[in-house]
Design brief:
Length: 81
Amino acid sequence: MVFEAADYPWVTSHVYRKTVATLMDEAGLSARAAADQLDHANVSMAQDNYFGRKAARTGAATVLEGIATTPKKFREDKGGA
């Protein structure tokens, strides 16, 4: 195999496909573009199996920061810890 000849015996075609998809994801390309490159009929195949999950901005950090900076007396008055 080509990868063994290049002294990368651990690289398989699947590892190479995953690397291509990861680089496309990191470059900000769409899952559609990756699906086309990987010859997937469904975008969800590329998205579910090759694209990493991004950190979602849920608003939890703001809520938690508010708890940490709220004076203890106020929290006790409101029934908190």
